Amino acid sequence: MRNTFFGLETEPSVLEGEVPLLPHGNAAPSVGIEIGLFPGIARRANLDGFISSVFPDLPNKYAEEGYMDGRAILTTKNVVVNQINTDIAAGMHGDEHVFFSVDTVEAGDDRAYGIPTKFLNTITLPGMPPHWLALKVGVPVILLRNLDTSSGLCNGTRLIVRRLARRLIIVEIVGGSHTGTVLNIPRVTTSSTGNCWPFTLLKRQFPVQLAFAMTINKAQGQTMGTVSIYLPEHVFTHGQLYVALSRATTVGNVSMHCRMRKARPMLSTLSC
Q1: 250 vs 44, higher pLDDT
Q2: Helices H, strands E: what count in the chain?
Q3: Fewer CB near the last or first residue (10 Å), C or N of the chain?
Q4: Please, how many CA atoms are within 13 Å of residue 160, restricted to the half-sphere of its CB?
Q5: Residues 139-196 pLDDT 10s
Q6: What is the pLDDT of residue 182?
Q7: Alpha carbon of 57 to those of 7, 51, 54, 86, 97: distances in Å?
Q8: Residues 6+ apart with CB under 8 A from 167
Q9: Is the pLDDT of residue 248 over 60?
Q10: What tens digit of pLDDT does each residue of 29-66 get?
């Protein structure tokens, strides 16, 4: 039995999370080989061209209404997301507004005695906004916590910055049933829980981060018009790759850039 995905017929094992193995006696594919997992998906060899495929003429058009709607780069890890977002934002026109967080430790926590504030500023945990948040009008951001679910301000919601003030960010929701709704986001205090530090970090900051790129996990449940998938290393599971490939509405709006450090034996579907 064959499945239909993006209008293409594929083997059931690809969609059910099984790893299609190489023919017996063949070595693992070398880095850069195109397996052709889904015909029609564009492979981009150049990273600049890869970014341009999802954000064409970005420096001149990013502030235009509707330009950012349904466009995103998906990748596996937060560290890669942050680097891509920083690089793209640096090349954009417009006035940059920088917001610094106020970082403290939970009152009465003796384990945090004497820890300098500058050290606390360097700690950025998953789900917490950065200490140094640089934004421009028109850039996409993603909400990092639930603020008002009835109005659409939920963890993972994509937003477009429409105005920046000292104590508020005015944003427009992109995607979902609340698309087009304009709302205010204040600074809030986020606390760290279940992390490797022996104290509870309290960070007061706008609960957003840039979202030219986002992790594949954050993109679950969202539908986008144009998606580029950046894989500097292997995905964690086939299910994660499936989530990334299925975010766009048509296969022609998906592009992929793979830079595997080394090939894994017997995993042919993860080398592009």
Answers
A1: 250
A2: 6, 17
A3: N
A4: 22
A5: 899 999 999 999 999 988 889 999 999 899 999 998 778 888 999 999 999 988 766 7
A6: 94
A7: 30, 10, 10, 17, 22
A8: 186, 187
A9: yes
A10: 433 333 444 555 666 556 677 787 788 888 777 777 77
3-state DSSP assignment of residue 188: strand
d(CA 183, CA 235): 35
**Helix-strand-coil percent breakdown of the chain, rounded to 5?**
20, 30, 50
Q: How far is the C-alpha of 193 from the C-alpha of 207, rounded, in Å?
A: 16
CA quadruple 153, 154, 157, 161: dihedral positive or negative? positive
CB 59, CB 92: distance < 8 Å: yes
DSSP assignment of 140-158:
EEEE-S-SBGGGTB-TT-E
Residue 28 CB neighbour total at 10 angstroms: 15
Strand 71-75 relative to strand 226-231: parallel, antiparallel, unpaired? parallel
β-bridge partners, 169: 164, 185
What is the rounded CA–CA span in Å between residue 5 and residue 197?
43
